[in-house]
Amino acid sequence: MEKAGEKGILVVSFGTSFLETRKKTIDRIEEDIQAAFPDYGFYRAWTSKMIIARLLKRDGTRIPTVEEAIAQMLEDGVTQVIVQPTHLINGIENERMKEDVYTYGKAFDTISFGNPLLTTTQDQRQVLRVVMEEFSGLTKEEGLVLMGHGTPHYANAVYAALNYMLKDLGYSNVFLGTVEEYPTLDTLLKQVGEFHPKKIFLTPFMLVAGDHAIYDMSGENEDSWQRRFETAGYVVECIIKGLGEYSGIRRIYVEHAKESWQLP
Predict the structure, then answer these.
(1) pLDDT for 262
(2) Helix/strand/coil (H, E, C) string of 137-175?
């Protein structure tokens, strides 16, 4: 927490136990938002209590929960609150975060929420364009596969929409699926099989390049996405880079925070 006062901004993330990817993603987003709101006290919180407990035990690092951060803001005299999540979608984590904040709702004059990354159709197009700028050197004989997380929440439909939107934007050789829901890896294997690129690039479509990127995407086990595509006969290269490392993605989060408060 820094510069507590009447106005405060709280950046909420799921969290990660991987320090290096945290520095490149969550920390960078927090820094950019803090710089965009110099007159606001800055606070952070994570929603994964399991990761919070792991960091405390392993590193002695204490990350506040949403409830703890909001309580601290109240204690510091903050009366106007902006909450900006680094979540990708309006799913389970984002709903729980709002519930935790509203527990203290009547204690503040105003509470404003910025949108997650992929809230509107415009957001989705903008995010895909940022990612594709990163892969502007992709040839027509190569394929790009983006690994999302997926959720049992109905908001998971955004991933199928994005996979379709990529084709609509002219990226017929780019495919987006999820680890835990639809579109599945089997779905993508079928779609990529129809295109049959000479080489496939695999990269996470997640804020941080953590467990899923290291184990589910590029792991040595036979069920990893890399091994499944290699078994299908493709040459595969993994790009271990979270969305939070893209400056264009971080700008979208800053824009969402500003829009929540109608700031210039």
Answers:
(1) 61
(2) CCCCCEEEEEEECCCCCHHHHHHHHHHHHHHHCCCCCEE
